[in-house]
Amino acid sequence: MVSLGVKIAGLSLKTPLMAASGTFGYGGELLLAVGAENLGAIIVKGISLLPREGNPPPRLAETPCGLLNSIGLENVGVDRFIEEKLPFLRKHDVPVIVNILGDTANEYRDLAERLGSVDGIAGLEVNIGCPNVEAGGMSFGTAPAASALVTEAVRSVWPGFLMVKLTPNVTDITEIARAVEAAGADCLSLINTVRGMAVNVDTRKPRLKNVIGGLSGPAIKPIALRMVYETWRAVKIPVVGVGGITSALDALEFLIAGASAVQVGTANLVRPTAIREIAQGLRDYLASRDIPDINDLVGSLIL
Amino acid sequence: MSARAYINAEVVKNLELAEGAYHLVVDAGSGMEPARPGQFVMVRPKEGLDPLLSRPFSIHEFEPRRMEILYRVVGRGTGLLARLAPGQTLSLMGPLGRGFDTTNEKVLLVAGGIGVAPFLFLARRLYEQGNSPHLLFGAKTKEELVRVEELSEFCAETVVVTEDGSRGEKGLVTEYLEAAIAKNGVQKVYGCGPVPMIRAALRIIESHGVPFFVSLEEVMGCGVGVCLGCAVPRADEGYLHLCKDGPVLDAREVKW
Ligand SMILES: Cc1cc2nc3c(=O)[nH]c(=O)nc-3n(C[C@H](O)[C@H](O)[C@H](O)COP(=O)(O)OP(=O)(O)OC[C@H]3O[C@@H](n4cnc5c(N)ncnc54)[C@H](O)[C@@H]3O)c2cc1C
Ligand SMILES: Cc1cc2nc3c(=O)[nH]c(=O)nc-3n(C[C@H](O)[C@H](O)[C@H](O)COP(=O)(O)O)c2cc1C
Ligand code: FES
């Protein structure tokens, strides 16, 4: 028997595989296809204080081994999430992590406070890749001070598991990572999508109505891996790797490069059973190499 | 397994019916749940990560094990699909989405080009219920009137329209819509085809106060409601999600 269990900042997960925000809905659709025993945690679609409509279509464009999306953070809002989505999620033996987003640091704080008043939430993931409305729309996550501000705002009302999700659209991710660590985050997840674009040469129109979107999938995996490695060396808190993981071998690369756990995103769209298959692949890998515990691999990179 | 997993299916037939228009028949084994007319499948023509996403197609005809689609080659995914030969496998997930309502009312089907795809299954179902629909089918040329023979067997009446006049009436389907509704006492219209056709048809059908349900297209990511990629603007505000709320929608619910 091999063990896939991991513990990150006090949170125990049955496997190191979390479902990444925005690629697993609110859990109901795919949980049964994956099986609770294979899922470390479900990170639900990003939630804001008020519902958001999202962007006009087309919202998706496929690129070589990649997917551009401009969903525009469409979500049902925190109240409907609590009333309609959380009861289903609570029934399953899988930690629920709520991904939160806001226009201002105060909105993030109010959201965390509201979510702190209900049962069944194992932790928060703070998406700091959103435009900071009070600072001319520049993303919080691109400036160390703004990243720290949001983290502190959430920390001030949320004593539990707090993961901050970093955007790769920065010059030096370690600078942001250190600022967020100092502001009280328990762990970091990275990366969010990479800003990108595609053009239809027949119509000369952008393939996304929003013109620019976020790139995900295998195309971004080397970027994500590099950033996880750099960040892991720069901070003391655990790092959760995200970006382009579609197989057990991909997940292993991240664990070896320093990630304590990983998130699987776009792969869930490609195959709803992706996380189940990756979990099985990890078990097979450990068994075939007589490695009893997945934790033995974390940060085992040989230079 | 549930509809939330891909299964392998063996190609039985993959025939080019007209230039760029193909009829694919697969043996889906016992792994596919029974489908309803108007539902769709996500199809992955080849293993691997490029192309990354599956492609959505309406179910053209369905019997246990046997699933058919009718498709036009427009890009990479459909191009790969066209290269599959009998005996090869593809993977698919479905049936997905909500299909057509098949209550017994007088139904008119309005199809444009490859948009005829979902109507064979629907027409047969209505025919078996003793409620053969009327069909108005338009295309550019007579070659593009694919599967019209098979379809008309299940229809009370078939009117074909070609832009070049090579078969049937000459012109656009919408020019013959008015007459088709009035003459047959139609109580409900189902449409599938290019958006300009649907838009023009909607104006005419609305003026008759007849409900109009359309099978729409939008780029899809997951096909199962998790990515929110397949947004279609609602008439009032916000978005419908085609893979869950559709692909068949009440035309009045949509902002055109
Ligand atoms: C519910 C549903 C049912 C469909 N049923 C059928 C069917 O029965 N027969 C059929 O031939 N086609 C059908 N389509 C359209 C089909 O999915 C697209 O033609 C296909 O995905 C194109 O893939 P590609 O890789 O060949 O083209 P790509 O290289 O991806 O794109 C080529 C061109 O097709 C457009 N396109 C891409 N995806 C879609 C899409 N989902 N809808 C419309 N245009 C798209 C692109 O914008 C581009 O201009 C359906 C679509 C949906 C959403
Ligand atoms: C359709 C889609 C929606 C997403 N929505 C969110 C979101 O709401 N919040 C968030 O923090 N990240 C969101 N992401 C980013 C993913 O969680 C993940 O960070 C990114 O896609 C990279 O991982 P991947 O390559 O495995 O998909 C979304 C990604 C996709 C493809
Ligand atoms: S295609 Fe993903 S939600 Fe509809």
CATH architecture of chain A: Alpha-Beta Barrel
Strand sequence of the main sheet of chain A, in spatial order?
3-4-7-8-9-10-15-16
Total strands of chain A: 16
Please work out how many helical segments of chain B DSSP would assign.
6
Based on CA atoms alone, the radius of gyration of chain B comes out at 18 Å
What is the percentage of strand-forming residues of chain A?
15-25%
3D shape of chain A:
globular
Count of DSSP strands of chain B: 16
Percentage of residues in DSSP E strands of chain B: 25-35%
Oligomer: heterodimer
Broad structural category of chain A? alpha/beta
How many distinct folded domains of chain B?
2
CATH H level, superfamily name of the largest domain in chain B: Nucleotide-binding domain of ferredoxin-NADP reductase (FNR) module
Mean pLDDT of chain A: 96
CATH class placement of the largest domain in chain B: Alpha Beta
CATH topology title of chain A: TIM Barrel
Terminal Cα span of chain B:
38 Å
**Which CATH architecture of the largest domain in chain B?**
3-Layer(aba) Sandwich
List the helices and strands and how they pair.
The complex is a heterodimer of chains A (303) and B (256).
Chain A: E1 6-8, E2 11-13, E3 17-19, H1 31-34, E4 41-47, E5 60-63, E6 66-69, H2 77-90, E7 96-100, H3 105-116, E8 123-127, H4 144-155, E9 161-165, H5 173-182, E10 187-190, E11 194-197, E12 199-200, E13 205-206, E14 212-216, H6 221-234, E15 239-242, H7 248-256, E16 261-264, H8 266-270, H9 274-288
Parallel strand pairs in A: 3-4, 3-16, 4-7, 7-8, 8-9, 9-10, 10-15, 15-16
Antiparallel strand pairs in A: 1-2, 5-6, 6-14, 11-14, 12-13
Chain B: E1 7-18, E2 21-27, E3 40-44, E4 55-58, E5 61-63, E6 66-72, H1 76-82, E7 89-96, E8 107-112, H2 119-128, E9 134-139, H3 148-152, E10 157-162, E11 169-170, H4 174-184, E12 188-192, H5 195-207, E13 212-215, E14 231-233, E15 239-241, H6 242-245, E16 248-250
Parallel strand pairs in B: 8-9, 8-12, 9-10, 10-11, 12-13
Antiparallel strand pairs in B: 1-2, 1-7, 2-6, 3-4, 3-7, 5-6, 13-16, 14-15
Flavin mononucleotide sits between chains A (20-23, 45-46, 67, 69, 71, 73, 99, 127, 165, 192-193, 216-217, 220, 242-245, 264-267) and B (221, 227, 229).
